[in-house]
């Protein structure tokens, strides 16, 4: 007989901010680059250097906080989090401890048609650490490691949720919504695969109805939605098994082994954790002007929930389609721009959800990397609507647009793909086909409706597919009475 | 508050210092003498006093989000005790 | 013409009149270093060749008629915790024995721009932690007035170099008295500016909220000239005050009429050598004679400054010194794994006093003790600052001894950390309050210089220079150098 457990999940998400320079120095934040080339005395933590806050970091943190419905602190400061690690040049991370820039926010998720509000405890600013490259296959088997400080000092916001999630699906939905919101506000690239969006999950179980939280474990560095969901699902089962066998959960940090599909303990030596936070004496407090906050609030774009609502209410899209399209700002913007030129939202949505996403996924591309511009897609859809090309042709043209970035008009012209909609020109071909296929004509006249399909096909063949099929159909029916 | 050799060991671990047995004794003694002197602070009531972390009333010191030249690569690694492939090399982590 | 003995302002006029060249002058000082350094040991590094090269460049510029700052061509030295690009900067610690900064401190930039000649880097207590120079990781500097006495600390090398004419002036740093106490012990002028007045960028941090760079000079006029170069806002230092800097030479007037000077009674009691107290009264009498008003004042929280200071400074130090881990620069002691490498490097690289303060600071910040120690100390700091705010409502500046005693003997306090800490009792409150403090030589006791300290309002350096200048003009007690002849 297994007891019923309630799952309690909270997420700590780190998002890299999309500034040009680091949080406390003027080095580039650009991803990649040769090792240790995006560094200066400040981010290398050389003796004697001092940090100066990048104003854009503060602006972006406030922007993200507002989009997440947070209160913006009027007085905020930076603290040092002290711990030793080779990728942390000063042996402390400049972060925010008791006075974060934003707190008490929330966002809304929807799982299986049920809406739920997830609380956000706080959003604070901090600096990223460097990168360790291990000499062996894993950290545990490496005899040495190499340190690259290019990432050191890249600005981060850490977004801490309340322990409000009750399943892996909810956690995933939260993460997807958070990603969309951060993308909409333009503060982060939110590329999980490049590490510009990272997630740690805190998971515990408690008997149904219990008030006290159970002992939690923390799973570090979940770098895809899939990993997030799988790791949480695994961890829930692992904890459930232990509890059902009468065991105890050990509070610890674990990591997700993608290959084996398991979480593993990261506990190494018995180690004292005491970060000894204290106000960084090299930095001065931040005092926020409410008018500045208002300016940032006014400059926020339409956020995913509002946009989705608008697509459903005003454009008649289904909840599902609107959800997919607004799930990423790039896609939503693309949609908006196509609709601005070709005001048939449903058709546009079908094309985006169908051909466009299919080709993007097949080629593993982001919306921004697409060679097809919204204006070009609109032009293609217009050509189809006006009967210049057929629906089938349109798909062929789109594939080429996607591949080459050429305008639809150019492709249509190059391929001589213009649809023949001239009755006079088609009448002769229709006559010829009728003359050449007496059997089919007879069949049709005898009531076999299907026979007309064969005749239309013959006309299309004669015209190399350029005939307007609707018109051919009409002409044939007219001729055959 | 008397601190013990055990406290000194804990603090040394946090501060990443290796202490000999003799060091531990010595530091326990001198830290106790100093901390005893610090007890003097408890003579004053500070319950209604704000802490001073900064003497100057400075706030909102920022820089613009503008790129500056990074360091020459030779200089980055010039002081490195050990390097490899443009990186700082360290012994195994765990 | 013993050029090395002269002050910067005397030399400046000789250089401007082209009666001497900077090369000549630099050679004179380098010769002096060669002659006395074996006894004084004020330098960790002497950059003789570079200095001469720099001097020749300055001479060429002058020959071309280029505009020159008043300090152009003057040889100086810097405490070895101020970063100098391409010149080893060690903090007198084994852990940084080979560190060559790839960048200049802002003050280094400013001094080089002004055309001063860098002679080398001065010895100090390791990471500026100490009051006698006995904590140098390399060797102790000796007091040029008595080689068996300490030069004070932590800027002991910088003070001794000026006293022994091994540099025309030097820069030191002062966290709890580290410029003023050695200035007093060595009989030179030492100024700790208002916190935030002189950029800290490139000063290797001991305690960030207290550290301040300042000049050690042969007289008040030189102090004003050096301050003119190094003070001013620095966008690289978030704690740098965004204020206009005056020309400090305009305070060099022999006039203290109507100036109100407070003498805090807490600095005149138990523990103060009565002969020093007597000199202080003599100085007050002189100032009254010149038209100032001197009155007793009270700074009631003075006795709490020392414990508060050692908590705050050690806490900040425990974090500031965590970066010395053997990964990017400095000493590395090889070990199997990274944690052992950290521990071995730090244990062997740091000296005993540095380790003591790191542990004290780590303890004060650690979980469960933060409120009792660190937070409490920050609150006491508020009270100490208030004492000064109150006093400055009524007084233009305050007058105290710089140190309770004159220079003590080597070994006298080194095994008793608390006794050593107490030698900073008169200077520490000034750092906690962030106000400026000037130590001026005033007489000698048994051949060893006495220093008196003037404390000013925030950014009130001008008043301190004015009082010091007036005393220099009106009494020879401010020039204790004669006593030094024969020792070195």
TrEMBL record, chain A:
Catalytic activity reported: L-aspartyl-tRNA(Asn) + L-glutamine + ATP + H2O = L-asparaginyl-tRNA(Asn) + L-glutamate + ADP + phosphate + 2 H(+); L-glutamyl-tRNA(Gln) + L-glutamine + ATP + H2O = L-glutaminyl-tRNA(Gln) + L-glutamate + ADP + phosphate + H(+)
Highest rank taxon of the organism: Bacteria
Enzyme class of the recorded protein, top EC level: ligase
SMART domains: GatB_Yqey
Span of domain Asn/Gln amidotransferase: 333-480
SUPFAM superfamilies xref list: GatB/YqeY motif, Glutamine synthetase/guanido kinase
Enzyme Commission numbers on file: 6.3.5.-
Example of a GO MF term: glutaminyl-tRNA synthase (glutamine-hydrolyzing) activity
InterPro entries found in the cross-reference section: Asn/Gln-tRNA_amidoTrfase_suB/E, Asn/Gln-tRNA_Trfase_suB/E_cat, Asn/Gln_amidotransferase, Asn/Gln_tRNA_amidoTrase-B-like, GatB, GatB_C_1, GatB_Yqey_C_2, Gln-tRNA_amidoTrfase_suB_CS
Keyword Coiled coil: no
One matching Pfam family: GatB_N
Keyword ATP-binding listed: yes
GO BP: any one term: translation
Keywords attached to this entry: ATP-binding, Ligase, Nucleotide-binding, Protein biosynthesis, Transferase
Family stated for the protein in its record: Belongs to the GatB/GatE family. GatB subfamily.
Subunit structure: Heterotrimer of A, B and C subunits.
Function: Allows the formation of correctly charged Asn-tRNA(Asn) or Gln-tRNA(Gln) through the transamidation of misacylated Asp-tRNA(Asn) or Glu-tRNA(Gln) in organisms which lack either or both of asparaginyl-tRNA or glutaminyl-tRNA synthetases. The reaction takes place in the presence of glutamine and ATP through an activated phospho-Asp-tRNA(Asn) or phospho-Glu-tRNA(Gln).
Protein name as catalogued: Aspartyl/glutamyl-tRNA(Asn/Gln) amidotransferase subunit B
Source organism: Thermanaerosceptrum fracticalcis
Originating gene: gatB
TrEMBL record, chain B:
Keywords (A to Z) from UniProt: ATP-binding, Ligase, Nucleotide-binding, Protein biosynthesis, Transferase
Pfam families: GatC
Record GO biological process: glutaminyl-tRNAGln biosynthesis via transamidation; regulation of translational fidelity; translation
EC number(s) recorded for this UniProt protein: 6.3.5.-
InterPro entries xref list: Asp/Glu-ADT_sf_sub_c, GatC
Catalytic activity as recorded in UniProt: L-glutamyl-tRNA(Gln) + L-glutamine + ATP + H2O = L-glutaminyl-tRNA(Gln) + L-glutamate + ADP + phosphate + H(+); L-aspartyl-tRNA(Asn) + L-glutamine + ATP + H2O = L-asparaginyl-tRNA(Asn) + L-glutamate + ADP + phosphate + 2 H(+)
Quaternary structure (record): Heterotrimer of A, B and C subunits.
Protein name: Aspartyl/glutamyl-tRNA(Asn/Gln) amidotransferase subunit C
Organism from which the protein derives: Thermanaerosceptrum fracticalcis
Gene name as annotated: gatC
TrEMBL record, chain C:
Keywords, comma-separated and alphabetical: ATP-binding, Ligase, Nucleotide-binding, Protein biosynthesis, Transferase
Catalytic activities: L-glutamyl-tRNA(Gln) + L-glutamine + ATP + H2O = L-glutaminyl-tRNA(Gln) + L-glutamate + ADP + phosphate + H(+)
Keyword Ligase applies: yes
Alphabetical GO biological process terms: translation
This protein's record includes keyword Iron: no
Top-level taxon in the UniProt lineage: Bacteria
Protein EC: 6.3.5.7
Enzyme class: ligase
InterPro entries named in the record: Amidase (IPR000120), Amidase_CS (IPR020556), Amidase_dom (IPR023631), AS_sf (IPR036928), GatA (IPR004412)
PANTHER family from the UniProt entry: GLUTAMYL-TRNA(GLN) AMIDOTRANSFERASE SUBUNIT A, TRANSAMIDASE
Function: Allows the formation of correctly charged Gln-tRNA(Gln) through the transamidation of misacylated Glu-tRNA(Gln) in organisms which lack glutaminyl-tRNA synthetase. The reaction takes place in the presence of glutamine and ATP through an activated gamma-phospho-Glu-tRNA(Gln).
Family: Belongs to the amidase family. GatA subfamily.
Descriptive protein name: Glutamyl-tRNA(Gln) amidotransferase subunit A
Organism per entry: Thermanaerosceptrum fracticalcis
């Amino acid at each position: 007989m297994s007891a019923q457990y309630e799952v309690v999940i909270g997420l700590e998400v780190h998002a890299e901010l999309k500034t040009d320079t680091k949080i406390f120095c003027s080095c580039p934040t650009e991803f990649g680059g040769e090792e240790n080339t995006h560094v200066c005395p400040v981010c290398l933590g050389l003796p004697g250097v001092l940090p100066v806050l990048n104003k854009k970091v503060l602006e972006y943190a406030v922007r993200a906080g507002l989009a997440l419905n947070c209160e913006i602190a009027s007085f905020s400061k930076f603290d040092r989090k002290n711990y030793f690690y080779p990728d942390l040049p000063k042996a402390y991370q400049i972060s925010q401890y008791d006075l974060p820039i934003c707190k008490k926010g929330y966002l809304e998720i929807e799982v299986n048609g049920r809406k739920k509000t997830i609380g956000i405890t706080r959003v604070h600013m901090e600096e990223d650490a460097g990168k360790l490259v291990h000499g062996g296959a894993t950290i545990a088997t490496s005899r040495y490691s190499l340190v690259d400080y290019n990432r050191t000092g890249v600005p981060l916001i850490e977004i801490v949720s309340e322990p409000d999630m009750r399943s892996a699906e909810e956690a995933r939905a939260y993460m997807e919504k958070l990603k969309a919101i951060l993308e909409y506000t333009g503060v982060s690239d939110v590329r999980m695969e490049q590490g510009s969006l990272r997630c740690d999950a805190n998971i515990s179980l408690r008997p149904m109805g219990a008030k006290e939280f159970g002992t939690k474990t923390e799973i570090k560095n979940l770098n895809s939605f899939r990993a997030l969901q799988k790791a949480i699902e695994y961890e829930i089962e692992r904890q459930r098994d232990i509890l059902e066998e009468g065991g105890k959960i050990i509070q610890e940090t674990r990591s997700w082994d993608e290959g084996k599909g398991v979480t593993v303990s990261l506990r190494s030596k018995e180690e004292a954790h005491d970060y000894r936070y204290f106000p960084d004496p090299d930095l001065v407090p931040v005092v926020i002007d409410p008018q500045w906050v208002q300016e940032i609030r006014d400059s926020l774009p339409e956020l995913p929930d509002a946009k989705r609502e608008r697509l459903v209410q005003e454009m008649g899209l289904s909840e599902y389609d609107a959800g997919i399209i607004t799930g990423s700002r790039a896609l939503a913007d693309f949609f908006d721009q196509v609709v601005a030129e070709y005001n048939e939202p449903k058709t546009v949505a079908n094309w985006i959800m169908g051909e466009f996403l299919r080709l993007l996924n097949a080629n593993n591309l982001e919306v921004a990397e697409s060679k097809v511009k919204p204006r070009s897609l609109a032009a293609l859809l217009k050509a189809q609507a006006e009967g210049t090309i057929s629906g089938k042709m349109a798909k062929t043209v789109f594939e080429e647009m996607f591949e080459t970035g050429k305008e639809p008009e150019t492709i249509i012209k190059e391929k001589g793909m213009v649809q023949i909609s001239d009755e006079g020109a088609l009448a002769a071909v229709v006559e010829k086909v009728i003359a050449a296929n007496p059997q089919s004509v007879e069949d049709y006249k005898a009531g076999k409706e299907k026979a007309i399909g064969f005749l239309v096909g013959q006309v299309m063949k004669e015209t190399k597919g350029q005939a307007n099929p609707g018109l051919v159909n009409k002409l044939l029916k007219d001729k055959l009475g | 508050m008397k601190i013990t050799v055990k406290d000194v060991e804990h603090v040394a671990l946090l501060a990443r210092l290796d202490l000999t047995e003799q060091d531990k004794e010595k530091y326990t003694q001198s830290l106790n003498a100093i901390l005893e002197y610090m007890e003097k602070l408890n003579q004053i009531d500070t319950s209604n006093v704000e802490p001073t972390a900064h003497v100057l009333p400075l706030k909102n010191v920022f820089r613009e989000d503008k790129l500056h030249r990074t360091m020459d690569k030779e200089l980055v690694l010039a002081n490195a005790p050990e390097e490899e492939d443009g990186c700082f090399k360290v012994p195994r982590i765990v | 013409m013993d050029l090395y003995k002269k002050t910067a302002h005397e030399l400046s006029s000789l250089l401007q009149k082209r009666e001497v060249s900077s090369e000549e002058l630099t050679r004179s000082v380098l010769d002096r270093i060669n002659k006395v350094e074996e006894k004084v040991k004020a330098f960790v590094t002497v950059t003789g060749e570079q200095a001469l090269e720099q001097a020749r460049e300055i001479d060429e510029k002058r020959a071309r008629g280029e505009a020159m700052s008043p300090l152009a061509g003057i040889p100086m030295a810097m405490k070895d915790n101020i970063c100098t690009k391409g010149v080893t900067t060690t903090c007198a610690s084994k852990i940084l024995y080979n560190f060559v900064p790839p960048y200049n401190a802002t003050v280094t930039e400013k001094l080089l721009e002004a055309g001063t000649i860098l002679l080398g880097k001065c010895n100090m207590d390791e990471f500026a932690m100490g009051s006698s120079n006995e904590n140098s990781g390399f060797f102790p500097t000796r007091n040029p007035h008595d080689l068996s006495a300490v030069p004070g600390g932590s800027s002991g090398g910088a003070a001794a170099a000026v006293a022994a004419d091994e540099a025309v002036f030097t820069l030191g740093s002062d966290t709890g008295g580290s410029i003023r106490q050695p200035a007093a012990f060595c009989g030179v002028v030492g100024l700790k500016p208002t916190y935030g007045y002189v950029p800290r960028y490139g000063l290797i941090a001991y305690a960030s909220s207290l550290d301040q760079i300042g000049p050690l000079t042969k007289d008040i006029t030189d102090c004003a000239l050096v301050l003119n170069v190094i003070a001013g806002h620095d966008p690289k230092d978030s704690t740098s005050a965004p204020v206009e800097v005056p020309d400090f030479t305009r305070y060099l007037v022999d006039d203290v009429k109507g100036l109100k000077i407070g003498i805090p009674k807490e600095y005149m009691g138990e523990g103060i050598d009565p002969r020093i107290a007597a000199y202080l009264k003599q100085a007050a009498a002189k100032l009254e004679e010149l038209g100032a008003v001197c009155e007793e004042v009270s700074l009631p929280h003075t006795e709490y400054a020392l414990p508060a200071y050692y908590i705050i400074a050690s806490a900040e130090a425990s974090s500031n010194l965590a970066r010395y881990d053997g990964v990017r620069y400095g000493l590395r002691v090889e070990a199997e794994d990274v944690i052992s490498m950290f521990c071995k490097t730090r244990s062997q690289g740091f000296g005993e006093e540095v380790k003591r303060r790191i542990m004290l600071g780590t303890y004060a910040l650690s979980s469960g003790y933060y409120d009792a120690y660190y937070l409490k100390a920050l609150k006491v700091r508020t009270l100490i600052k208030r004492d000064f705010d109150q006093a400055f409502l009524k007084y233009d500046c305050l007058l105290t001894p710089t140190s309770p005693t004159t220079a003590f003997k080597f070994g006298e306090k080194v095994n008793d950390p608390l006794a050593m800490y107490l030698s900073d009792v008169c200077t520490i409150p000034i750092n906690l309050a962030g106000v400026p403090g000037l130590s001026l030589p005033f007489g000698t006791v048994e051949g060893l210089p006495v220093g008196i300290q003037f404390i000013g309002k925030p950014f009130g350096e001008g008043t301190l220079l004015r009082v010091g200048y007036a005393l220099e003009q009106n009494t020879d007690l401010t020039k204790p150098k004669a006593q030094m002849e024969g020792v070195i």
